[in-house]
Automatic annotation (TrEMBL):
Pfam families: Abhydrolase_1 (PF00561). It comes from Micromonospora tulbaghiae. This is Alpha/beta hydrolase. Keywords: Hydrolase. InterPro entries: AB_hydrolase_1, AB_hydrolase_fold, Epox_hydrolase-like. One of its GO terms (molecular function) is hydrolase activity. Residues 27-266 form the AB hydrolase-1 domain. It comes from the Bacteria.
């Protein structure tokens, strides 16, 4: 198994290497992945949307092939880094933001901090709507366990991938190799721990940042899509019900027999929902 990240583009943002994939032409769409993940979680959706959109996927700072930030990795810091990446890519007007898991929270934070940059929000199994989160992430807040759990190991990577998907057919050698390559970066464990401890504790996701963020996003009244997989083992589908109460004007969809990444297990259906939102 070759432990290298799949080929992608590279930009320099604030003097730091940023791994990205930019293709297509048309209204800009930004794809934001989850914690400890990479832009490769959006490969199929990226290809589909790039037929008539300018699609920009990026490894968040300290993830995949992107260099870490100089300061702490927090939600506001990640959102600001995405804004600077868009500047470097020449995208200064409103863009459609599509975020999965942590990427959804980053998208919401960017919308709250710089609303002029955002045309719409699509939140796929997004962080920010509940305290409950997989025990694996909660255990990372326990210092004696964190380093052990974050060691790049094929068995751990396979178990993690298996928890993400409802259909085990999506747990491929290629995805495991990408996960191991990302986890093997010298800064990966530090960045992961900074984010986990900033956003949660061993009890779950902290409530204050969620409440403040959702208040700010609700006040924007942006076109918003909420999507969840019914069989999500990372952020349970019960979060969708709460998301509907906090963002009552948002469109929403629950996929049956789908895990944490509907953009992979339900690519065509997610594409259709996005196009309907943007129409």
């Amino acid at each position: 198994m070759t432990l290298v990240l799949p080929p992608a583009d590279e930009r320099t943002v604030d003097g730091r290497r940023t791994r990205c994939r930019i293709s297509g032409d048309g209204p800009p769409v930004v794809l934001l992945h989850g914690i400890g993940r990479t832009l490769d979680d959006f490969t199929a959706l990226h290809t589909a949307l790039a037929r008539d959109h300018l699609v920009l996927a990026v490894d968040l700072p300290g993830h995949g092939g992107s260099a870490p930030l100089d300061g702490p990795h927090t939600l506001p810091a990640l959102a600001a880094a995405v804004a600077r990446f868009l500047d470097a890519a020449g995208v200064t007007g409103p863009a459609h933001l599509v975020g999965n898991s942590l990427g959804g929270a980053v998208a919401m934070r960017l919308a709250a901090d710089a609303p002029r940059r955002v045309a719409s929000l699509a939140l796929l199994n997004s962080a920010g709507f509940g305290r409950e989160v997989t025990v694996a992430l909660r255990l990372l807040a326990v210092r004696p366990l964190a380093r052990l759990l974050l060691r790049p190991h094929p068995r751990i990577a396979r178990r993690t991938e298996r928890a993400i998907f409802y259909d085990p057919a999506y747990v491929t050698d290629e995805r495991i190799a990408t996960a191991l390559a990302a986890a093997g970066q010298p800064h990966a464990a530090r960045v992961m721990l900074e984010l986990v401890r900033d956003l949660g504790t061993w009890r779950g996701v902290r409530p204050q940042w969620r409440a403040d963020l959702l208040d700010a996003v609700a006040a924007l009244d942006l076109p918003t899509l909420l999507v969840w997989g019914e069989r999500d083992l990372v952020l349970p589908a019960a979060h969708l019900a709460y998301a509907r109460t906090r963002l009552p004007n948002a469109r929403s969809h629950l996929f049956r027999d789908t895990g944490h990444m509907p953009q992979i297990e339900r690519t065509a259906e997610v594409e259709a929902l996005l196009r309907k939102l943007w129409a």
